Amino acid sequence: MAEEQKNRVGKKVVLITLLIILALIITYVIAYFTALKVISKPEENKDSQEKEVIKRGIVYSLGEFLTNLNDKGYIKLQLELEVKDKETAASMENRKAELRNKINAILRSKTKSEVSGKEGMDNLRTTIKVELNRLLGEEVILDVFFTDIIVH
């Protein structure tokens, strides 16, 4: 009987040892695949960032603008356009006077309150983009940047 009891205790010890080893193996496998997944994510983000950089266009400068607003104020700004490719930027050089004239007309039609604040600048940026794309006859301007702004 004592031998049977030792045999049972020995089997329990072996069973518990096997269960602990099995639990450790499962934990190791889960940790391995989790770490592998975490490590591979930055590469995916890197690929998406590279794709975003590729999607960016060419920045074309239209220079500085200083003009009166529709009310008693004035606006001074440096304007840059993001266009889809180098060919578009080259063709815009031939129409620079026409583009500057349109932007001056847009600026002169605005009041100080219309161009003040973030919302006013966002609306002005959108208006310039839409009107210049309409003037050019196609969607070639991707974005409008104001690099210096003074509204007085």
UniProtKB/TrEMBL annotation:
Assigned keywords, A-Z: Cell membrane, Chemotaxis, Flagellar rotation, Membrane, Transmembrane, Transmembrane helix
GO biological process entries: bacterial-type flagellum-dependent swarming motility; chemotaxis
GO cellular component, one term: plasma membrane
Organism taxonomic ancestry: Bacteria, Bacillati, Bacillota, Clostridia, Koleobacterales
Membrane-related topology note: Single-pass membrane protein
Keyword tRNA-binding: no
Role description: Controls the rotational direction of flagella during chemotaxis.
InterPro entries: FliL
Protein name, UniProt field: Flagellar protein FliL
Family per record: Belongs to the FliL family.
Transmembrane segments: 12-33
Compartments reported by the entry: Cell membrane
